[in-house]
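[step 3/7] fold_predict: job queued, chain A
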Amino acid sequence: MLRINAHATGRIGLRIGINKEDFVFEGCEASSQVNGCGGFADTTLLISQTDDFTHVLYICSKYINLSRTNIHHFSPALCITWVLGAFLWISCGDSPTYVEKGAVFRLNLDEGLSTLDPAFARSRAPVWMTAQLFNGLVRLDSTLKVQPELARHWDISPDGQTYTFHLRRDVYFHRDAAFGPDSTRRVVARDVVYSFQRICDPATASTGKWVFNGKIEGLTAFDAGEASDISGFQALDDSTVQIRLTGPFPPFLSLLAMPYGYVVPREAIEAYGEDFRRRPVGTGPFRFYRWVEGQQLILHRHPDYFKRDASGQALPYLDALSVRFIPSRLSAFIEFVQGRLDFIGDLDESYRDEILTRDGAIQPAYADKYQFLLAPQLNTEYLGFLVDDSLSQGHPLGDRRLRQALNYAIDRPRLVRFLLNGMGYPAESGFIPYGMPGFDAEAVPGYIYDPALAQALLREAGYPSGQGLPPLTLYSTQKYAAISEFIQKSFENIGLQVDIQNLQGGALRKEVYNSRVNFWRASWIADYPDGENYLALFYQPNHAPTGPNTTHFADPEVDALFERALRVPTDSLRYPIYQEIERRVLAEAPIIPLYYDRSLRILQPGIRGLSSNPMNHLHLERVRLPGQ
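[step 4/7] structure written:
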């Protein structure tokens, strides 16, 4: 254990115990200033998998000057799995801390937070936070079924093109000065129309306009400046909203469950303008209190929230949420181990081995210490090929047999076991991930590891054992370096040379969408829980750069099946069509599915009411802390 004892003299003594060996630092002189502050108190530091003592010295030297040391022998062969101890915790006068009373749920967002405006909630942090502040007409439950939210119920016309929502009459916005002396008001149908039209308005520049593009009656005229309103959004009266589509779209209700479907008040948007991103006003279980960007976000319980539990008790149970923004996942996990966070949203590879076995089981040392919530997560990791562009014409990757050979060359179970500790499912079916409604591995048999078949396909393509095949270049990012190297080795095993070119994430996406690379690594995270969201990547009218079909896959029969599926409102009848599309796509091999994702949430003991779901949504209105 690393312990730093601070004395009034400013002298510090350090004793570090690692695997029963002591490392003693005596007479260390405290730095006079750290970030402009001189105060410090006890805390704990975790150092994971360090093979020498340099890292420990580096961390200590950031805060203290080592003037004299007496260090026992340290063997690099020793693996420092955990080093826990006391370390400087700086408390600065210009870095505000808030001591909340009552039941406070504490979490961390390592990626930071750019906005609290649902019109721009495109990544996990704003999606999670806006879900606490706002509501939509509908919401997905933990099984991905659409449930009423602001809407009590709805009707869908026989042709699947008109949705009529009947609203609750007991929903009120958070109290805010934007509403004037009354400080709040009831939510009515015109708020829904305003919120949806705001998403579509070019002046808003919302990242969610695609949700309505090509689907809503009158949107084309609105975009062209030929109409001041979108005719497909209508408030029939204070409690009735009607939405008219240009054609049937069975996943439409699921789309409305996204943050882009949340309802906002016109008064607050007009009062705060662009500053609404940090002064949000919604209807959700929590209301905005304070946000010091990059440090802490505080949300308080909404006392007028419309929901109650089965016994009639008002929700939420919590009094407040305290959100921190520690960028290092390892540091955040330290805080969790010390009891200063209640929730960890996922695992980082820096401590994954400490928590999980190779097969994805919880290590015995932790199994009874914390709560672990495992669930499929709707994300497919894959490799993509450009199949019908100038880059592929005359290129070996334009040959379906080579692409099939590459599919058979990868041992997906081994990848998941040794690189992910079982935090995934081998993608031995199609592109639609495990956990998606309608997923059926038997109906859609994919590629398994079969190096002999891979070699046979190489011979058939004219490249026996890879002879005559020029080196291939796989474009990826540094974050996925281990996976890229696994792929590289897999292809080397059948005689192929693959070079890896790492780009920044944004640069890689730009190259892919503009058809400037022909072999790349990618992910597709579900926007809504319907297979259409995945199969749209193989629909010819969606060719990149204007659509998500980055492989430029084209098959008239697939297009016809895709369009037919959109005319089938019944899920059980639509899924077989999806499966036929996947079988046809897999036969052409424009992609190499690698694995389907899996999420792990870790909770402090005694916390109740938080569940996992395949969309990785976070809803905290029913969470209770120990003793509640």
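[step 5/7] annotate
Residues 571-588 form the longest helix (18 residues).
The first strand starts at residue 2 and ends at 6.
exit 0
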